[in-house]
Design brief:
It is a single chain. The chain is about 50% helix and about 15% strand. By secondary structure, the chain is an alpha/beta fold. Helix 3 packs antiparallel against helix 4 and helix 6 packs across helix 7.
């Protein structure tokens, strides 16, 4: 590893783990495997990794994965409750929600080709996060869900609604958001949320089958193609209100707390 990558690994050893293999950077969420939520600590360290990539053009591919039984079971809602309890004005909660937007924006706009390696449950914020990856492969045992409406919350994490709609179409995303139904890997593949579905034991080989040819592609062509694809995707979101999502989420949680409603679990 280079000196830079050693520093990066040291900075991100608690909430995420980082390993560089030539032009491929592998990022492991919650490396202890004890907590499959997208906590503030995870978001902070992922943003740091993605920001650092601006200074590291040699990194061509970023692979995002997670240990334990599940890839991600959603945002850490206990942090939302604690933020509102400590600061009833909602400012602290808005800062947490803004981080989610910054993370998704950075993931969409990094020069590296981003690959999500998925297994187990991919819920809420976890699904929002991986929707901003360029390529997504999942084990055939994956289960997906958008539970926000059932919790009394707008599906506002990271400003992902526009991205999900542009990736999969408004009709199906509308159904899954409103019903909060669990859906399987096959359905996710049909929706375009997964590009590949394979048995769990073949997942690493599937990722390798992508990374090997990608690292041989001319870097300028890859970067330009990614920029063009991102531009067309954003063109479908010309009326995107994603930057307001942190305010929508904060307002709703404040309302629930103020009216004595049960906080989300």
């Amino acid at each position: 590893m280079t000196e830079t990558s050693n520093i990066l690994t040291a900075l991100t050893r608690e909430a995420v783990a980082v390993e560089q293999d030539g032009p491929v950077l592998r990022v492991l969420l919650n490396p202890s495997g004890q907590d499959a939520t997208l906590s503030t600590a995870v978001m902070d360290e992922l943003i740091a990794v993605l920001d650092d990539l601006h200074r590291r053009p040699e990194i061509r591919i970023l692979v995002l994965s997670s240990p334990g039984e599940d890839f991600c079971v959603g945002a850490d809602r206990t942090e939302y409750q604690a933020a509102l309890a400590a600061d009833p004005t909602g400012s602290s909660l808005r800062r947490i929600a803004d981080k989610a937007y910054r993370l998704c924006h950075a993931l969409e706009n990094t020069h590296a080709i981003t690959i999500a390696r998925l297994h187990g449950k991919v819920i809420g914020a976890g699904l929002a996060l991986i929707s901003f990856c360029d390529l997504r492969a999942g084990a055939d045992t994956c289960r997906f869900r958008m539970p926000e409406v059932g919790l009394g919350l707008p599906p506002a994490w990271g400003g992902a609604m526009g991205r999900l709609v542009s990736e999969s179409g408004a009709a199906r995303i509308r159904e899954l958001m409103l019903t909060c139904d669990m859906f399987d890997a096959s359905t996710a593949h049909q929706l375009g949320l997964l590009h590949k579905v394979v048995p769990l034991e073949q997942l690493d080989d599937t990722i390798t089958a992508w990374t090997r040819p990608l690292v041989r592609r001319p870097p300028e062509a890859l970067i330009l193609s990614k920029r063009m694809l991102a531009g067309y995707a954003r063109a479908d979101r010309t009326a995107d209100i994603a930057m307001l999502d942190s305010h929508l989420l904060t307002a709703r949680l404040n309302q629930m707390t103020g009216h004595g409603s049960a906080t989300p679990r």
